[in-house]
Amino acid sequence: MSEVVKATGGRLVHGLSDAGISNISIDSRSVSSGECFVAIKGQRHDGHMFIADAVNRGVPGIVAAEEFYSNYSFSAGRTSFVSVRDTQKALGDLGAWRRQRMGIPVVAITGTNGKTTTKEMTAAVLGQSYKVLATAGNFNNLIGVPLTLLRLEDSHAIAVIELGMNVPGEIRELTRITRPDIGVITNIGSGHIEGLRTIDGVMKAKGELFDGMQENGIAVINADDKRVKALGDRFRGRTLRYGIESPDADVAATDVRIQGTGYSFRLTIGQEAAEIRLPLAGRFNIHNALAAATVGYHFNVPVQDIRNSLERMEPVEKRMQLIRLANGVTLINDTYNANPESMSQAIETLCALKKDDRGIAVLGDMLELGDYSFEAHQETGKQVARSSADYLFATGDHAHVLTGSAVDAGMKAEQTMAGAHEEIAGALKEIISPHDWLLVKGSRGMAMEKIVDELVSFYGLKN
User: Fold this and answer.
1) Are both 306 and 325 inside the same structural domain?
2) What is the DSSP letter of 326?
3) Which residues pair with 441 in a beta bridge?
């Protein structure tokens, strides 16, 4: 526990400083007898309420907030107790301590869209030559990032960490915790604009990654995104740039072609090149692949190994995930999240994939857009009308904004519908037929996967 005290700047208030611990846990239900329990106060639960449960499980150490100890009666057990001002910050300090102690290179990835897919691609590319620790799922916040770093083992050679944010300062703190050697910003758009007010506010918040890196760090720049490029231009360290048909890119994709439900392109890294068949829907995934290839290039992963890993990629669940129904319909399950940029890209992808078949857009609200919300939904409705999509189904508080703007832009009223999840699922069953393509997308809070689940349950999957 002495190292816990040192890492957190806390105070040992009971027990022995030499009590040994095997790891850190924040879950009293699964904490083991060798772990230190850190009591985190969350939105729904306060970990301090479950300290007694952790003690009964035989944990050697507890980290709790100062005010907790004013009314706590210590037992005669062997558990050591540490007092800190803020247990969430203490958890971050423990993650930072583990990262510093292990001393391996850390790659940090953020951006409005594509963070998780880029993280998975980067881990796959680096995994060709190294043992990699990568963020599990989307454990990308002030709780998940430290917990990820605390999983570092002596056998790991590189860590790939995803950084998410909702408010200013969050990326700055995550950068302090991770101390990245390589920083990647995939793109900058209007996601989370409600808490950041403007797109410039989003840019500033994402830029906290580069601002917090050391001069010997490397910034990986999307040369096709003007805001990311501007952040790279002022970075004080070395930069590596990637882009599609971009003349100043260190890593570039040229000769881009749709191939099946994915893309093929020529990957050029310095003087080397390889033909890539990327099996993922969406042109934007080429940028994600290029980001991963750029990181691999820095770590001397052979170009052919980069190609092999990219060609074996599978979509992350609920992110442009293609689902074939038994009735011949193809679902594009992009239900994990949505913002204006990702929504626009998803509609473009639907129209590119369906070709001459029917395309149906099933869209939920885009959340956290603040004052920009009405305009954003209006523009999305117009885009659907001007695209080759045949139907628009919408749900949420802005459903009628979506459908109304689509009709105003030329879509027939009978081609649109606004309703609840179950109403839309029922209407879809009435109109869909073999060879149709359905895009289902919305923000996380809209739970658009309910519509996907209902259609999969009703029709079954194609063998």
Assistant:
1) no
2) T
3) 334, 363
